[in-house]
Amino acid sequence: MSVIIGGGFASGQEVLQFFTHFGLWGVAGTLVAGLLFAFLGMQVARIGTQLQAHSHKVVLNAIFGDKLGSLIDLALIFFLFGVGVAMLAGAGSLFQEHFGLPKLAGGLFMALLVSLTLCLNVQRIVDLISAVTPLLLALAIVLVTYALFRSDTDIETLNALAAQQQDRAAPNWFLGGVLYASFNIAVGFPLLAVLSGGSTNLRNTTRGGVLGGLGLGVLILVLNVGLFATLDQIQGAEMPTVMLAKGLSPWLGWLMMVSLCCMIYSTAVGMFFAFSARFADPETPKFRLISVLSCFVGLGLSFVGFTTLVGTVYPLLGYLGIALIVGVIVYWWRHRHA
């Protein structure tokens, strides 16, 4: 959950474009995405555990075969690194816009933090990135409760306002839910495959995949409701969640900005972990060397700009995610009686 939250939830802008701008139908879109998350999380976790996967490539080859699996693996490696670079760029932008510091300071701070984290053992890495989720869930509940009490705009007006929005990420609410899930499953797939492959308890990993997927669905729903209830107040906001938090209290706004930094951190760790695990076994000197080098190469590339990176990497990753969804469903259908 924490890995996906940083890439797909951090600013609230993603939820706004994929769901909120469809009005009340956006709620149905969140249900579609939540169910896909739960199903796909369960299946990827099961496959990873059954194959005792040490790399996401093992799972890809099982789903797509060696040749097609290798092609998808190459694409996924590229995009994993790209999302990691985007997170470093995002840290730079966050430090510049909200803390008044140079972009280099934010990017360097995040690169150092991620590098140090990846030098720890796997369980410590999981513990650190998992710590972000409860904070965001608590903040989301507080924000939505506040938004519902503060909003005095009727549903018809909010629906009309949503209908006027031009920056929807999909032509309809159903496709919005599918595309949102496809992008995020591509982000979370590599780490989920590797972590589940490190366990022999199929029941636990299956349950973790389902609960993680349902948790993401609940979080999308909660954020979507809060954003929809205050749609008339967050027009033009690049980070609507921060705007909502600042509207409630200045200290809560700062807390939200710190949590955004934590979410960026969790996704960056997940991306560079999965990227490095593709070339070396975790907790080995080679893995640590690749992790540190990839982080600092990524820091150099991050100066291309956060907006440019997101606009380039994310849409392409969404198409790759659709291929993963189709592949997982076909694999499940073929092995459903096994």
Structure description:
The chain crosses the membrane at residues 22-42, 74-95, 101-121, 128-149, 173-196, 208-231, 251-275, 287-310, 316-333. With 338 residues, this protein is mainly alpha-helical. It is built from 15 helices and no strands. Helix 6 (103-118) packs across helix 13 and helix 8 packs parallel to helix 11 (202-229). The longest helix is centred in the first third of the chain and has 34 residues, at 66-99. The two termini are 28 Å apart.
Describe the structure in brief.
The chain is mainly α and 338 residues long.
Main features:
single chain; 338 residues; mainly alpha; 80% helix
Furnish the topology, listing elements before pairings:
Blueprint lengths: L1 H7 L4 H6 L6 H27 L4 H9 L1 H34 L3 H16 L3 H9 L1 H19 L4 H9 L9 H25 L4 H28 L10 H9 L1 H28 L7 H17 L4 H29 L4
Largest sheet: none
Oligomerization state: single chain
Kindly state the mean pLDDT as a whole number?
83
SS class: mainly alpha
Q: N- to C-terminal separation?
A: 28 Å
Amount of beta strand: under 5%
Radius of gyration from CA coordinates: 19 Å
- Run of helices and strands: HHHHHHHHHHHHHHH
Shape: globular
The strand count comes to 0
Segments where pLDDT lies below 50 for 5+ residues? none
Helix content: over 70%
Q: Quickly count the helices.
A: 15
Protein name: Membrane protein
Organism: Castellaniella ginsengisoli
Keywords: Membrane, Transmembrane, Transmembrane helix
InterPro entries: Na/Glc_symporter_sf, YkvI-like
